[in-house]
Amino acid sequence: MSEVDRRAGRYLPPGLPRPVPHREGLDREFWEGTRRHELRVQHCADCRGWQFGPEWICHRCHSADLCWERVEPRGRVFSWERCWHPVHEALAGFGPYLVVLVELPAADGVRLVGNLLGDPLQEVVIGAEVEAVFEDQPDGETLTQWRRTRANESIGDVG
Amino acid sequence: MTGRTAGSGVAVVGLGETEYYRHGGSPHPEFRLVLDAVRAAAEDAGIDPREIDGYCSFSDDRNAPTRIATALGARDLALSTMQWGGGGGGGAAAVANAAAALAAGYARYVCVFRGLAQGQFGRFGTASTSPHAEWPSSYEAPYGVLSAAQLFAMRVRRFMHDHGVTQEPLRAIALASYHHAQQNPRAVMYGRPLTPELYDRSRWIVEPFHLFDCCQENDGAAAVILTTTNRARHLRQRPAILMAAAQGADPRQSAAAHNAPDYASANTRNVARRLYAMAGLGPRDIDVVQSYENFTGGVMMSLVEHGFCEPEECVEYMTLDNFSVGTGKCPLNTSGGNLAECYMHGLGLVVEAVRQIRGNSPNQVPDAETSMVCSGPMAELVSSLILRR
Ligand SMILES: [Zn+2]
Q: Is A97 touching B (CB cutoff 8 A)?
């Protein structure tokens, strides 16, 4: 059973800020994607470059012709942190918890922040392979969490 | 000195600080603290505070120059400039903005100030209570990445991974601030020395930051007054001449969801390059450094990007000995810095850099000729400056 399941469907306690799509529509497709348990990243129709976080135009060629391309929800741990001090009332008495920054090789290494499921005291290895776990929220957008992929449990530091 | 004529023909001529209090410990509201610091700086410079005709600040300071000038009964207000972006990263930039205005002749005496009463206005270390997170924080906050420490820790972790850096440089930076604070009776941590054992035993805030890697929260105000070097000759203090200042950011450092291309970075490469070019100096020419400790890991990366050592040399170079006045090649945060003197959003570091040029620091570097300030590493906008005699 994953950590998401153990904690009543969520890794972190309820009460933290809930993600909402950008009010001007900048990232509507991203959140529509995660609701369908799909990971979508901005992709430039002109120069074919990947871009994240979302912007209105491509930072490479300034084209406004940006598509939201579906990418394989797998990545590598680029960095991590273990949070101990509760900075939000929802986290009082909760920690520690793990945050990972995950790079997506399928999208030229763009990165996403999420939580690493499992034991919060586990050793985290930069370069370790992870796969997305979509965490539906009862009252908002779906979060993208990460867990170690089984085949690579024993792989060493490749970052 | 080989630099061009001081970059701007501008000097710091007045320093003012209130007493520094622990968070919530000020007997006065923030605006009153600012007035006290501004008046102290004018007194130090030997001018009437009504002669100050320009104000610059940073990090969304709440104390508007119109209100200050009104409260002081100033005859003219010719400049009111807020630095945009970067929080404490805007500290040296606010000084640069003052210098630019003076060089252009927009004002005669410009005061750079910062007031903080976190007891009155709430604390930096706690997160926003908004129930929603919208781009860009929608990619961080729902995952429990809410505080500045949590926003920056992964940059430092990646840097340590890339360059084989252990916890020791972070500890040495914390120890240096506390070490210097023990000679500074004004420091909030005066009489409260830090040992390696205390550091190691202290709780994690967010790995790799222990409690002592994170800046204090304090109440107080600081102010510095600048004018042209021509006017400075007739004032009370030895002027600290602004050789160079630079502000800005590296490419796409504000990319959401931690997508800055140069991620394991303090975001100071462009600033350091322009700073040294303007000064006509290099890191070997700098006698003493005040480097903003929001978190020690940011100081480490900023020192590297300002050329003091290579990334792979951090463990060897960054030691308490090497950072201490009297024993070190790189005297660092010589009043106690943000960690142990006071967190005045880094303006206290500018004050201390000027004291080093005047020769009256509590930890004076003998015959210091050049004095550097690096503001707000890892922020989306950063700034640095170099002063000289
Ligand atoms: Zn493009």
A: yes
